[in-house]
Write a structure and sequence with these properties.
Layout: E1 2-8, H1 16-31, E2 34-40, H2 46-57, H3 63-87, E3 92-95, H4 97-100, E4 102-104, E5 113-116, H5 119-126, E6 130-134, E7 137-139, E8 145-147, H6 153-164, E9 168-173, E10 194-196, H7 197-205, H8 213-222, E11 226-230, E12 239-242, E13 255-259, E14 262-271, H9 276-286, E15 291-296, E16 303-311, H10 315-328, E17 333-337, E18 340-346, H11 356-366, E19 373-377, E20 380-386, H12 390-400, H13 410-413
Helix pairs in contact: 1-3, 2-3, 6-8, 7-8, 9-10, 11-12
Bound molecules: adenosine-5'-diphosphate, aspartic acid and magnesium ion.
Length: about 425
């Protein structure tokens, strides 16, 4: 008998009919001889609705109370799904994160899972019940409700699978697997049958929201067999996340990710001397603002320009902090741009193929797209370009790196 953890995202439980369809799939999985734990998200749009609701009461709600509010979304779906299962004659029991005791740290809104108590869940499974767990939430050591950040139900599912040593964690969503890029942006995107965990980590951290980055980190750390599948179709094996170190015949590029949640800040004319980078980024870090790409130019006239990117939501605050620092450093000026996008090529095949960066830059140049920043890692090349070029740049690179699915006529791909 295998133990399967299935996670269903917001659109997969978006209305009563969808919930009934999920219940049938869960029942079917159990009837095939498996023990099943189901993790669900809130119904689609609900977390956004609750966030907006809180904003209409307080522009910056206390994080503890916001988590109490946001966690209600998932409580609705665990109850509805358990009812739908009961209607099919399938014994099921729902649990919130606090009832399971999904212990997290106390970072409200972006809490990390520390430990999961399995006693009750295992007892239910052994008694033949389906266990339905609310995704995205936990409790800290003082029993405060915490949430795990947007997309956090993926992480609940993988963490449950790791704790229970499940045979597979299946992430059911509204696409039938991981594609070479977001299929909503590029209809010619190709579904991958496999992707290495290393590549999936880079894709997720570079903006592919099909899996929350922390869920992939968990899968990596605990070697959780992870698969992405569609809850809307009954066919196909989805995409398996693999743990091969050096897959044979790795394609040059596995996929292209893009992230619009970035903004760029530059301090121009800072003195070229030791300690300046720390002076600039110290206050940013102290304000809990995450920095992504960093570029410092070569100095001339004893000064240099220092550029970095932050989440778009932190742009205004970071710019204010920077004005202050620039005055202290007698820098020339602070400038910024929050209409940028970061586009990343990801692939373990890069290790064995030279010239990928120049091929990327040539393809963008041919479309007259100006590159503002560049960063590379062993299996990733990222560029920052103006946001208005997002679609053109992603499609151009998708074609340039031979990723287009040309097995189907274009009409059918839409
Ligand atoms: P859920 O609500 O099920 O968690 P999400 O909206 O979080 O679903 O994630 C699924 C979405 O991820 C897809 O609808 C798709 O638009 C987007 N996506 C982004 N990049 C990719 C990719 N490389 N492959 C597949 N889907 C992707
Ligand atoms: N409901 C949460 C969100 O919308 C968690 C999730 O769906 O994974 O982000
Ligand atoms: Mg999601």
């Amino acid at each position: 008998m295998a133990l399967i953890v299935q996670k269903y995202g917001g659109t997969s439980v978006g209305d009563p009919d969808r919930i009934a369809a999920v219940a049938r799939r869960v029942q079917h999985t159990q009837a095939a001889g498996n023990q099943v734990v189901v993790v669900v998200s809130a119904m689609s749009g609900e977390t956004n609705r609750l966030t907006a609701l809180s904003g209409s009461v307080h522009p910056e709600p206390p994080p503890r109370e916001l988590d109490v509010l946001l966690a209600t979304g998932e409580q609705v779906t665990i109850a509805l799904l358990s009812m739908a299962l009961a209607r099919l004659g399938c014994a099921a029991c729902s649990y919130t994160g606090s009832q399971v005791q999904i212990l997290t740290d106390n970072a409200h809104g972006k809490a990390r899972i520390l430990e999961i108590e399995q006693t009750q869940v295992s007892a239910d499974l052994n008694a033949g019940r389906v266990v339905v767990v609310a995704g995205f939430q936990g409790i800290d050591e003082h029993r405060n409700i915490t949430t795990l950040g947007r997309g956090g139900s993926d992480t609940t599912a993988v963490a449950m699978a790791a704790a229970l040593q499940a045979d597979e964690c299946q992430i059911f969503t509204d696409v039938d697997g991981v594609y070479t890029t977001d299929p909503r942006m590029v209809p010619q995107a190709r579904k991958l049958t496999r992707i290495t965990c290393e590549e999936m980590l880079e894709m997720a951290s570079s903006g592919s929201k099909v899996l929350q980055i922390r869920s992939v980190e968990f899968a990596h750390k605990f070697r959780v067999p992870l698969r992405v599948l569609s809850s809307f179709s009954d066919t196909g094996d989805g995409t398996l996340i693999t743990f091969e170190e050096n897959p044979v015949e790795a394609a040059k590029i596995a996929g292209i990710a893009f992230n619009r949640d970035e903004a760029k800040l530059t301090v121009q004319g800072v003195p070229d001397q030791p300690g300046v980078a720390h002076h600039i980024l110290g206050p940013i870090g102290a304000a809990n603002i995450e920095v992504d790409m960093i570029v410092q130019n070569t100095a001339h006239d004893g000064t240099t320009d220092f550029t970095f990117t932050v989440h778009r939501g932190d742009y205004t605050k970071a710019r204010q902090l920077l004005q202050h620092t620039a005055q202290q450093l007698s820098a020339r000026e602070v400038s910024g741009d929050d209409k940028i996008v970061k586009i990343s090529l990801v692939g373990v095949g890069m290790r064995s193929h030279a010239g990928i960066a120049s091929q990327m830059f040539a393809a963008l140049a041919a479309e007259n797209i100006n590159i503002q920043m560049i960063a590379t890692s062993e299996i990733k090349i990222s560029v920052v370009v103006a946001e208005k070029y997002t679609e053109l740049a992603v499609r151009t690179l998708h074609t340039a790196f031979d990723l287009d699915d040309d097995t189907q006529p274009e009409e059918e791909q839409r």
